[in-house]
Write the structure tokens for this entry.
Amino acid sequence: MKALLGLGVVALHAGLFLVLAGKSAPGLTVTLDAPLTAQTLTLDGVVPAELRDRVTIADEGQAPGLVRRTWSVSYRGGYTRSVGAAQLVGPFQAPDSHACTGRILVGQSLLDGGPGTIGAIVQQELDGELRGTTITGVGDYLRIADFKLAWARITRPEDIALTGGAPAFIRATLTVVFERVNVPIEVVLVPKPGVAALDFKIAVRATLDFDNR
């Protein structure tokens, strides 16, 4: 009799186990249809309906950048299962759109503030190139006089032709002195920002001054 009761208890336990096992929570799966990159976060996954109230969702990272989303469920016995997915989230910079800008300030003291400035170097280079020059009827090159280099704006009608109407530019004025002729020269440099360097459009105007000779 006792043996029969023992077998009945074992059978009952086995039956209960099968019932409980059949009703156990399903494994964690996440159905996700999302691109690897997106302008906005689109990691909206679908989990089994039986787990919907038990799933916890956590995000790591933030846009713009790499965002990782994790879905987690805790089961009996302290076991936790997690599923994760990552997405590179924008907004992204278009190759032909300059979203980032920079500003470079070049003061007057750097242009023409004495030895070592841009103006002093330009004058030195010009003098070195012209040294030893002789022109028939004009005579020998003597020196560069009245050299000035400064930021300028359009103040005369002729400035428009030289600069193309640029709102600001660098104006260099100098006089090349020969034995018989002075040559006043005006050079304008219009900044043209490029992708990798700062370029300049250069225009030159020169006149001859014989000083009544």
